[in-house]
Amino acid sequence: MADRAVPVIEKRLMEVKLGEIGTWVGGRDFTPNGMFSSVRKGYERYLNKYIYVKKGGIGGLSMVLAGYVLLSYVWSFDHIKHDRMRKYH
User: Fold this and answer.
1) How confident is the model at residue 54 (pLDDT cuts 50, 70, 90)?
2) Which residues cross the membrane (predicted)?
3) Whole-model pTM?
């Protein structure tokens, strides 16, 4: 039973070999409903791993804060880039 072959579409990304990536991506659901469900699944996985634990620390919340800081920097990079090119005024 443990030696049963799992289809490529049902594997997780970290279990897929390099030659199987095209088949794996082709089996994903890229509709708006599919994208929403995948984001929801990832969010639930994050909550279960870092937030809903018995002995929680600051790790999970600091990851969210770091992600927010990185995302806001990427969004405002054009403005920062133009300010960097100005010399004194």
Assistant:
1) confident
2) 57-77
3) 0.56
pLDDT at 1 over 90: no
Q: How far apart are CA 46 and CA 29, in angstroms?
A: 21
Structure tokens at 1: 């039973």
- In order of 12, 25, 27, 51, the CA distances from 36 in angstroms are 18, 17, 16, 21
Alpha carbon distance 70, 50 (integer Å):
19
User: For residue 24, what are its two tokens?
Assistant: 């794996």
Helix, strand, coil share (%) of the chain residues, nearest 5: 70, 0, 30
Query: What are the tens digits of pLDDT across the range 40-50?
Result: 998 898 888 88
For residue 2, what pLDDT is reported? 59
* Alpha-carbon radius of gyration of the chain: 20
**Contacting residues for 46 by C-beta, under 8 A, at least 6 apart:** 60
